[in-house]
Automatic annotation (TrEMBL):
Transmembrane regions listed in the UniProt entry: none
Species of provenance: Coregonus suidteri
Binding, heme: 55
Protein family according to the UniProt entry: Belongs to the cytochrome P450 family.
Record Pfam families: p450 (PF00067)
Gene3D superfamilies: Cytochrome P450
Keyword Heme: yes
Molecular function per GO: heme binding; iron ion binding; oxidoreductase activity, acting on paired donors, with incorporation or reduction of molecular oxygen, reduced flavin or flavoprotein as one donor, and incorporation of one atom of oxygen
Protein name: Cytochrome P450 2K1-like
CC annotations in GO: cytoplasm
Highest taxon above the source species: Eukaryota
SUPFAM superfamilies: Cytochrome P450
Amino acid sequence: MISGTSVIPLLTSVLQDDSEWESPHTFNPSHFLDEQGRFIKRDAFMAFSAGRRVCLGESLARMELFLFFTSLLQHFHFSPPPGVTEDDLDLTPSVGFTLNPSPHQLCAVSRV
Ligand code: HEM
């Protein structure tokens, strides 16, 4: 490869690799749980890339996401709106520069 060539890694090649993930195209948090429900680290989860150009903000991003979501889940119970079941939810991502969830309505009921 010629020096100075721009390289754009396609992380979907590993993040959606069907030899690595049980259901690579669906939102499935169980990918990160063993049979006992304990967290497992998956080497194929490379959302922050790897090597020399790995994300410099990885630890900050992981800490922020942990604090943000645990704090929400400790304070609220989330559910679909009345009349909608979890099976009715369409979790197909909208495709853009990144994969985003499509807009949903939900109820957040205070736990306290
Ligand atoms: C969920 C959140 C984040 C994700 C998924 C993410 C993902 C990534 C990825 C995949 C790259 C490599 C891009 C490439 O191929 O060159 C990258 C680079 C980078 N990220 Fe993040 N990032 C996140 C949050 C952050 C935060 C919070 C910061 C800083 C506060 C940050 C700072 C950087 C920097 C400076 C680079 C460039 C590193 C380099 O090329 O030397 N990122 N990020």
